[in-house]
Amino acid sequence: MTMDASDISRVIEMAWEDRTPFEAIESAYGLTEPQVIKLMRREMKPRSFQMWRNRVSGRRTKHLAQRNFTIGQFRCPTQKMR
To answer: What is the mean pLDDT of each run of 10 residues along the chain (82 residues)?
Structure first.
């Protein structure tokens, strides 16, 4: 799958967001969690990637099955729509 710069930027933005699960990225862009990790590793500086991995590793909100709350949307109502 070929992605343009704006799609890559949006995937990175979604991956950094605490409450955006990997499943939302997969439904929007067709990228599985391992593919998102690979993209993040490729597109980010090594230290930034390491900070992101430390941040999301074990984070329950990044996986729908591990959440203890329900969701209705992938975006906050105040977030700009693109």
So the answer is: 89 90 91 95 96 83 58 57 56
CB 49 within 8 A of CB 24: no
> What is the pTM (predicted TM-score) of this model?
0.71
Length of the chain: 82
Residue 22 neighbours by CB distance under 10 Å = 20
Q: DSSP state, 60? A: G
In angstroms, the CA 38 to CA 8 distance is: 12
Q: Cα separation of 51 and 35, whole Å?
A: 18
Euclidean distance between CA atoms 69 and 82, whole angstroms = 26
The three-point CA angle 22-23-25 to 5° equals: 65
Measure the CA–CA gap between 6 and 72, rounded to whole angstroms: 25
